[in-house]
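Incident log, entry 3
Record: Potassium/proton antiporter regulatory subunit, CPA2 family (183 residues)
Problem: checksum mismatch between cached and fresh output.
Input:
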Amino acid sequence: MTVYESDLPGVGKKHEIELHGDERLVVVTHNTGKREVFRRADADSDAEKLFELPDGLARTVGTVLEGAYFQPIATENIDTVLGGDALIEWYEVPDDSELAGETIEAADVRQRTGASIIAVEHGDEVTPNPDPGAGVHAGDTVVVIGSREEVDSFHATFIASAGDGDEGHRDDGGDDGAGTVRD
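Fresh output:
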């Protein structure tokens, strides 16, 4: 990502930030502190004004964007860390998993691992808080909650034992916000 800076005599400074492809975000900082934010489809197109901010508000927004108020936890996995030791993880059920073709109850998930399945995604259908009699199929995505040890035990019992040790684990590896299955 490249940032271009140029002086605007009598006005202030202009910064252009390359986004996806040729798209650019343009920020004009006036000598008065006012910021104007524009979007350009490419380097040669006219800019479309998105919004403007007075100096104080621009600094506050910048501080929030910089992460001064909240610093996300960078993880390689799609997981959500809750208070204490609680953790939520997503897994795709491999074809040869003990869980594939079984109900949650028959697989004895909670007794064997300590973790709980809190949702099952089958195709376009998501079942939150599934009943113990809910079936799980190969290719389904299960959302699991438990301590780190319990979630690791679930992974070892129902996911890793079926494949190469990492198969089925969801990874957010990109900026598109969508989970993808790691090969």
